[in-house]
Predict the structure.
Amino acid sequence: GELIYLGTSDDQYKSQQSIRTLANATVKERPYVKLAMSMTNTSSTRILARHTVMNGPIITDWLQQLIASDSTARQLDFVILGEVAGVSFDYQHLPQSRGPQAYGTLGAIWRESIHHYLKADEQAVPFNGLSHVENRYASGPQLPFIDAWIHQYGLQAWTRQLLQVTVPPIIHMLYAEGIGMESHGQNIVLIVK
């Protein structure tokens, strides 16, 4: 029945593109922290419903066991970042007039960091970053983020490889396992060398 202030962390955090998810900038391998923001963004209210916070680690375990036991999924060599812990306020203790107004506004989810899965020569690139145009120099050309890769591999070969590593895992999980994944750009992270 009490909230206890725990103090300030020694670690520094930076926000990810989803606004409410924080990445540990001090120790990159530590989990991301997703917070309830009680705001509407892209037509969704960005709360953390208690049942989703509590079920996240259970669903993570199930999904990761499913992938580990599926030979095609293992061959496709993809990762689903798991939710490893969650905490939520128990809204049932609020007066009935306040419960619906406060529901989902106080909670957090800890999700695995992509850095656990990166090898020394790899980096993570958000899928929607592929369409980014860099403006590094005020007087220089504005180049697409993928410009160096296109020059090195060629547009057709690079695009073919991009589709080969991104589409089959989504299609396989849907057709073979009946699992639809929300595969918009900020939820897909490419591991590249």
